[in-house]
């Protein structure tokens, strides 16, 4: 073997070893995949853009397609994946992913690298087993579309398939699964207190970044052709934020409320605000309105979350975007006393209640979420949401507005919650929207807008 060839092989093995260690850690500790990968990429920041992309794609893909991969491996192995040692199981999974979904990698290279990984982990007696399973897979043409069970074919837990099929039908459920497996589009919201959409387009296009207008959202762009958001000129300067179009709907509703009421002052409370996307959008709208109109009152967005670890993200975004009307507080949203204040300022004109939920609307962005959520979690989350909503009712002004939202699509967390809010508080329902993943190329999202009746 030449030195050049040996160097390439060593590099390939090293990259795959990073992936393997990441998979083992994720399986053992259950750490959220996006946090784990961000940490890994930061640790190996000296690697090339291509190498870092390889690590990310292979790690995310292996986790995302776990059910499908285990099904295929089990067809060729006398020992089922559930009975394998974690190292061997994950070597086979990541190798199967390369063979099935990364066609540009030669099959013989996949097999050779898998054997090297087994030896690197000091499990040489099992190298023949791993090699045999992968060589058997390589000899047979595997047609994933022929897998009859959609939950296996698209790699989603069976209970999610059954629940979605019951609520949305089989055809729509499969459309959702397919969309979640595709690369999600990236949308940005322009900070209109600092720049204009045309100026932002020029800044991005000068960096070789492609931009597309977003229908019905004149302050938003879809962008592509970049390696990292943080490295884009304009991000650190606070000219834009990353936010899915579905979530921007909350800001649009706030803008509509302001336009109809033309207030002299306004207080918005965001009760579960981290990392602050909706708070910052609301603040941008308020500041733009205040700057265009002569207003005597105070405009304020109070962003709260349960720990300093969460509010720090809001503060970072507030500083980056230059939104001085945002105040942050550490507070449990189930508590009825806003911040301990007893004065009139403790009440809210608008409450943003984007509440903890199963997150099944954003499975396309969180590859491991479908494995972390359990069916019993949905009922407990429904009860948690209701505890928070009971608290918010105590400090929402009469005539004020509640914007309830969740990034999920289950009936328990959407329609049933809307009905409960109306029955529990007697609020007037002004509007609502349910977006399934993929509709208008957005995440799954639900929101309702209510008005608290005057007494």
Give a short synopsis of this structure.
The chain is of the alpha/beta class. The protein is built from 17 helices and 11 strands. The protein has helices spanning 3-29, 33-43, 49-64, 66-76, 86-101, 107-120, 127-139, 150-153, 158-168, 170-181, 197-205, 245-261, 277-292, 308-321, 369-372, 375-393, 415-425; strands spanning 186-190, 210-214, 217-224, 240-242, 266-270, 299-305, 326-330, 348-354, 396-406, 428-435, 445-451.
Structural account:
It contains 17 helices and eleven strands. Mean pLDDT is 93; it is low at 1-8. Strand 5, helix 13 and strand 6 form a beta-alpha-beta unit. The chain is globular. It folds into two domains: 3-147, Orthogonal Bundle (N-utilizing Substance Protein B Homolog, Chain A); 245-451, Vaccinia Virus protein VP39 (Rossmann fold). The protein is α/β, with parallel strands linked by helices. The chain has helices at residues 3-29, 33-43, 49-64, 66-76, 86-101, 107-120, 127-139, 150-153, 158-168, 170-181, 197-205, 245-261, 277-292, 308-321, 369-372, 375-393, 415-425; strands at 186-190, 210-214, 217-224, 240-242, 266-270, 299-305, 326-330, 348-354, 396-406, 428-435, 445-451. Helix content is 49%, strand content 16%. The longest helix has 27 residues, at 3-29. The strands form two sheets. The protein has a seven-stranded mixed β-sheet with strand order 7-6-5-8-9-11-10, with helices on both faces. A four-stranded antiparallel β-sheet has the order 2-3-1-4, covered by helices on one side. Helix 5 packs parallel to helix 7 (127-139).
